[in-house]
Amino acid sequence: MAPVPISPLKIGHIDDVQELRKSKSKIPERFLRDITERPTLVTPESSSSLSDIPIIDFSKLSKGNKDELVSELVRLLTACEEWGFFQVINHGIELSLLDKMEKVAKEFFMLPFAEKQKYPMAPGTVQGYGQAFVFSEDQKLDWCNMFALGVEPKFMRNPKLWPTKPENFSETVEAYSSEVRKLCQSLLKYIGMTLGLKGDVLNEMFGVAVQAVRMNYYPPCSRPDLVLGLSPHSDGSALTVLQERKGSSIGLQILKDNRWVSVQPIPNALVINIGDTIEVLTNGKYKSVEHRAVTHKHKDRLSIVTFYAPSYEIELGPMPELVDENNTCKFRRYNHGEYSKHYVTNKLQGKKTLEFAKIQTNNSN
Ligand SMILES: COC(=O)C(/C=C/C1=C(C)CCCC1(C)C)=C/O[C@H]1C=C(C)C(=O)O1
Ligand SMILES: O=C(O)CCC(=O)C(=O)O
Ligand SMILES: [Fe+2]
Prior knowledge:
- The chain is of the alpha+beta class.
- Helix content is 26%, strand content 19%.
- It has helices spanning 17-23, 58-62, 66-83, 95-109, 113-116, 169-194, 201-206, 276-281, 336-344; strands at residues 50-51, 55-57, 85-89, 128-130, 145-152, 210-218, 230-233, 239-244, 252-256, 259-263, 270-274, 291-293, 301-309, 315-316, 334-335.
- α3 crosses α6 and α4 packs across α6 (169-194).
- Bound molecules: the ligand COC(=O)C(/C=C/C1=C(C)CCCC1(C)C)=C/O[C@H]1C=C(C)C(=O)O1, 2-oxoglutaric acid and fe (ii) ion (FE2).
- 2-oxoglutaric acid (AKG) binds at residues 214, 216, 230, 235, 242, 251-252, 291, 293, 303, 305.
- Belongs to the iron/ascorbate-dependent oxidoreductase family.
């Protein structure tokens, strides 16, 4: 067997949260958040903190008549400009495929710990089973087990990390990712239309897009008021597509007007969010919105998240069409591969990662 490379990172022991839950032991200190970071939870009394993010009917974009297309594009523009998050209904992906994806993801997390450990996420990397974005011993941990895989282009795949169990896992991820890829390409085309861009500029600019899938499993937690399921962050992708397993607890929260509000997923819909790349390309017209996940005392939660981003070779910056004297250039040009490296080598910390590309001005926000 090849020697395991020794990581220079000192990240300490990372407990597996499903195993912690099984052993009914006290929540380790590393999961307990400082008072300023603790979540606000949705209770029946505080349902006003539930947010109705915009709903986009994809069939009106793809198959609607001219009036339907125009009115849905206006809704899409508002969703991107004011929310950075929306839910897509009638997305055209077979519901049986979504169910299959949920099934294999849940079955993977339910495997014995020893089986899942055959696909370890090495410290400082983001693929495999474990906890990503941990870089030091004193960093707080998330109440989440992750399993992440690079999917496209094929060079992103590490075959040793694609599990043999459950049966059909790999072919399901393949089929699912191919459908989600088409949806992302269509959404990018319509987003381009909301920006008044001629032709399919965004897809053409992206080259062979990078695509990764991450399954996040949040077991119930005895003290959901003291831990976070996933630390606040914006996604480094262009678009992110999130599917939630039916019957999951509410968990996704977005930062809207400086308040954390919970997203109530619609069954069979997909939640889409704008990532850092679109914020840069649109010179901040469409912003990547900070989000996090919270846990539940009695219910578990599973989310399946696809990150869709430009090829690593692509140089990008604000599109000239979106820069003028009233909207001066907010980001420098950079290589997406470099941004990706920067993103995965820093802890999740709100929108801090995007500072990589920001042109600092006295009044920049
Ligand atoms: C919270 O965001 C992420 O975890 C994330 C990670 C994506 C990746 C994998 C799970 C495995 C393969 C590498 C890759 C970095 C794509 C977000 O993805 C974004 C961030 C950047 C940058 C990007 O290109 O996609
Ligand atoms: O599980 C969720 O709701 C959030 C997941 C997420 O934001 C991510 O994986 O980047
Ligand atoms: Fe995210």
